[in-house]
Amino acid sequence: MIQCWRLDHVGQTIVFSSRQQRLPEVVYCGDLLPDNDDLHALADSLNRPLTPGTLDQIVPLSLLPEEGRGFPGQPGLRLNDDAGRPALTQFTLTETEELESGIVFKCTDARSGLVLSLSLKFQTESRVLEVSSVLANNGDRDWLVSWLSVPVLPVGEEFTDIIEYAGRWTQEFNRQTVPISRGVHLRENRRGRSGHDHFPAMIFAETGAAYTKGHSCAVHFGFSGTHEMLLEELPDGRRQAQAGYGEMQRLCRGDSVTSGIAYWAFSSRGLNGLACDFQQHVRRHIVTYPQGAGARPVHYNCWEAVYFDHRVDELKDLASRAAALGAERFVLDDGWFGANGQGRDDDTTSLGDWFVDPRKYPDGLHPLVDHVEALGMRFGLWVEPEMVNLESALARKHPEWLIMPADAKQVAGRSQYVLNLTNPEVGEYLFERIDWLLSTHAIDYLKWDMNRDLTLAVDGEGFPLLIRQARALNALLERIRSNHPRVEIESCASGGGRIDYGTLRHTHRVWLSDSNDAHERWRMQNEAFVFLPPEIVGSHVGPRHCHTSGRRLSMPFRALVAMTGHMGFEMDLRELNAEETDKLTRYTQLYKDNRDWMHKGAQLRLDCAAPESLAQMIVSDRRDRFFLFAGTLDVPRNETTAPVRLSGLDPHARYRVRLLNADEINRSATRRYENPLSGPDGIVLSGTALMQSGIVPPFPFPDTIWLFEGQAEELT
């Protein structure tokens, strides 16, 4: 007996089959199938031959592979009773719920009384598949669940490589490519946040796949507390990808546990195909802005100008300078708070004491807020509510609120410790303090930071709490958003330590890295934009002498890198000379004039012949205009510049293309550039010509970006 189902959505088809009412498996995932295709024949066509030395049946690679069915690889579910005995489940399919754009399979294991629900669904107009598992206990014993995967999808044998991201502080989103081989490739993070070192995603690509060509698929696990992801190739060549929480869960009688949500995208259009689908999914179904939020405002953050040395007159001066440059929001960073005569003069004290420090602000924050508003800007504030210093009034009053197991020495991080948000008293205190700040000040933005990992992460009874801690944080964020619906929240965790779709459901922006080095940022952003739309990625123009790397970079390069994300400044504006001021003002206005279409369009990376080149485009949703950012990060190896082939254009449209920063051509690098692109009228070419032949930028020095603008004169 075989049953089949098909899920069609936005040009894609997924086909499932179940034999003898066992857990279904995916037998097809790809381009839209004809309506009259025989699904049973499709499933039977994939029956594999048996070989000597194997079991008498090839155990299906089901949506949750079962050890109890004899599956030879990693099971999708592992759980034991209190005596350590495993539940060797043999689930039976009992109900199928077919949704408009999804399907839910409900299954029961008669021996244990466990009930499993496997959900696979598309959101409206999205090509991204959301998958999740729920395991309920209707039996007569409690269980410890050590692993529950999201529904498992097979990974095609045509894919040869895993593309994934590693890194560290100020070095996020370092791409690494790993050949797929026999066995298990595991990525996991148990740090209590998604982590600088293990962004929770895997891309599977065929040989030769690049930004603009080739087949690929990707999975992202949308949770920040802890994660585990694996790809396994079995001895028979089949492959599976699993994802879930990297922490044990208790499953008591009458309760249920979940796997979390993973997000899948599939592309025959290279990595840009994945990027377009993920970016649109985040825009439409993950991030929810306050009503009437409007265009993404240009930020000025004062951190690298003053650090902890807050002086109201200096801050007012910086705000005035920022407004003159075009900033629209002033963000007051760390150092404004304290209690009982102790203030935040360095990073060793006062976390947890969310009161305005009267030593630095004798009249409170109101004079600074009023000044910022008088300049036509909004006001934002830095907070780090999850953390506490031992040198604080809060820690002295409530040492039991810390995540600090009895009789165990906790390691400090940045001189701070973590509050146990699963304690309702902690959540209530933090809400009360933040609610007071937002209710008594004109604050419309919180930079919500988190500057250390969670270690020894257990509650007072010794049970793991990474999953519960993340859920408690999300509940706190939602309570704040509900009471203050006009406030935006940025997720920052020492830069990019907490970036995932689970976090983004409760926030509006991410701080990709604490590095404001545009050289590093250009690389990071090109990688991160595979999963993130640019308008939610904070990207600031840093100081000419970068504080985290020591590099010295030109203002045009810094400003153009910032333009490709959510633009802002983070430097001591008093260091700017006249030329830098002019350039920054120019590029800020260019960003503001174009951000409406930039933040709705497709953000595409280009395949460049030269290894030192890294280029990207932003193409409007109507394909009637674009920006090309053609960047060079190192000394060019050739004597002249190769053409850059564009992407994502209407092949039949004719575009007028101009080099907008031709005035920045350095004659020591480009001695002569007799190209109409640099003239006031530019050049008019078809989309086909621009994508097949390309355009040639001037010869650059390292750390240079050429900005080309294209506008359609004829659209098909």
Q: Would you mind describing this structure in some detail?
A:
This protein is an alpha+beta fold and 716 residues long. It has three domains: 62-275, alpha-galactosidase from lactobacil brevis (Beta-galactosidase, Chain A, domain 5); 299-511, Alpha-Beta Barrel (TIM Barrel); 604-714, Golgi alpha-mannosidase II (Immunoglobulin-like, Sandwich). 20% of the residues lie in helices and 30% in strands. The chain contains 13 helices and 37 strands. The protein has a nine-stranded antiparallel beta sheet with strand order 5-6-7-8-19-15-14-11-12. A hairpin with a 5-residue loop joins strand 2 and strand 3 (25-31). Helix 7 (424-440) runs parallel beside helix 8 (466-483) and helix 11 (555-563) runs parallel beside helix 12 (578-598). The longest helix is centred in the C-terminal third of the chain and has 21 residues, at 578-598. The two termini are 51 Å apart. The mean pLDDT is 96.
